[in-house]
Write a structure and sequence with these properties.
Chain lengths: 324, 152
């Protein structure tokens, strides 16, 4: 499986082992193969033996920057492999003063887009035994034979819509850049919802949010949700009730999305990690769209020096309400 | 959602929660009072130090606990007692207003107004207008906490 990646993995391993074994860093955050071939899970490499497990394939979707919040408590200096969205997540954490730049070495990995297991199965008609990646296409191997599909067709939604596959921040770029992708119509679902009458929109959200288990996986996966104490766990005042009812679902999801105003890097990890497929990106993107419309285009995470729109103002700002 | 909440019978009066900044809008309300202007008693005023103090969770909590409309009132841009509080809240609340509309609230349910301490007449006017708009819209059942019993 994924033979063409062997060179890349070797290159990555060489680069990080130099720093790790040379003592510049005490840990590398990367990926290793999980229980199944279609899973790559985070690897916390501290030794040469750990580095043997390091992998880089089409399932390394988990954002490693988020793990820095914990890992930097125990380590002076950590190396992290970052894809496009991971690097933007790192910038997000940097802007929030949650990490220190000098404590981290970023190894940039231009990302070809990660594959969606559900789509793989759908295309193959069964759970494939493995895949072989060619240039732009993927061969799915099943008992019944082989099937070649376009890579783009079996990518995760968030990767299909990704515009910045190359890391925006890095110390070392390990592979050759992908180049900017064509801007997808990411605001289309938001615009369609905006056209509905208010009551229908409410009914839509009531239905979608009714599935919410309040597992907070969206928050755990999110690079902008880095508060040490989250409002959902605050006891006094207790903003978030535990009851299962529409009112509490709205409270959680509106406030979660709102906390990302001008901060959400649009990486889609919340939606991907949601076990009940709530379209969380639509809430996030609504806010991105409005902020862009009202206060000028801003792409969170691309530039750690740029001022986030809600941390600044201009005296002649427009408003979404009447100012007479 | 209980049927009683959506029952738009003759006896229903809207509940409007108005967050007023201490320095302008609350003083504007005072002026309206001392000048003997009238505005509907449906409006319950909550004094906050600045419109920048408004946490959007205040607004959502008001809707949960029975508000039919929420109005945030602050100093005119440029007149903030803390220099920039209302500039900050203008950005935040603009984004938030669009978000609650996106979630399915009618645009009239949540409003922001700038009212200075010398605008007693404007205060009374805005409160009357808000009440009339919400009366026309009817009771708000969206996001209402089903366990919450109104005491008014």
């Amino acid at each position: 499986m994924a033979e063409r990646n062997l060179d890349s993995v070797k290159k990555i391993r060489e680069a990080v082992s130099q720093d790790l074994l040379g003592g510049r860093i005490s840990q590398v955050l990367g990926w290793e193969k999980g229980h199944y071939w279609w899973q790559s899970r985070p690897l916390f490499a501290r030794s040469e033996a750990d580095l043997e497990k390091l992998t880089w394939d089409s399932f390394c979707v988990i954002n490693l920057s988020r793990y820095l919040l914990e890992e930097l408590k125990d380590h002076e200096k950590v190396g992290v492999l970052v894809k496009g969205c991971d690097a933007r997540a790192f910038n997000r954490l940097l802007q929030d003063n949650m990490v220190k730049r000098e404590q981290v070495i970023l190894y940039g990995l231009p990302c070809p887009g990660m594959l969606d297991y559900n789509r793989l199965c759908e295309e193959a008609g069964a759970v494939p035994d493995g895949i072989v990646e060619n240039n732009g296409t993927v061969v799915l191997k099943t008992d019944g034979g082989e099937k070649e599909v376009q890579r783009e067709d079996i990518m995760l939604d968030k990767c299909r819509e990704c515009v910045y596959p190359d890391p925006a921040a890095y110390d070392q770029m390990l592979l050759s850049p992908q180049g900017e992708r064509e801007a997808a119509e990411r605001f289309k679902p938001v615009e369609e919802l905006e056209e509905l009458p208010a009551d229908e929109r409410f009914a839509y959200w009531e239905k979608e949010l009714s599935r919410c288990l309040r597992c907070y996986a969206c928050r755990q996966a999110c690079p902008f949700c880095s508060c040490r104490e989250c409002f959902v766990e605050q006891e006094n005042p207790r903003w978030q009730g535990r009851a299962y009812q529409p009112s509490e679902n709205f409270m959680f999801h509106l406030v979660r999305a709102y906390h990302g105003t001008g901060r959400c890097i649009d990486c889609g990890e919340c939606e991907r990690s949601c076990p009940v497929d709530i379209p969380l990106q639509e809430l996030n993107r609504k806010l991105i769209k409005d902020i862009n419309e009202l206060y000028g285009d801003y792409e969170a995470g691309l530039d750690a020096e740029a001022e986030p729109p809600l941390l600044t103002y201009r005296p002649d700002d427009p408003a979404a309400f009447s100012e007479k | 959602m209980s049927a009683a909440l959506n029952d738009n019978t003759a006896g229903w009066e809207p509940l409007i929660v108005s967050f007023c900044c201490n320095w302008c809008s609350y003083a504007g309300g005072d002026l309206a009072g001392t000048s003997r202007m009238t505005y509907p008693a449906n409006v319950k005023v909550i004094r906050v130090p600045c419109s920048g103090r408004i946490n959007p969770m205040f607004v959502l909590r008001a809707f949960q606990r029975g508000a039919d409309g929420v109005l945030v009132a602050g100093c005119h841009p440029g007149d903030c007692h803390y220099t920039s509080g209302n500039y900050q809240s203008r950005r935040r609340l603009s984004a938030f207003k669009r978000l609650v509309e996106f979630a399915g609230f009618e645009p009239e349910r949540f409003e922001v107004r700038w009212i200075s301490s010398s605008e007693g007449d404007k205060f009374a006017e805005e409160m009357t207008e808000m009440t009339e708009k919400i009366k026309a819209l009817g009771p708000n059942g969206k996001m209402r906490d089903a366990r919450w019993q109104s005491v008014i």
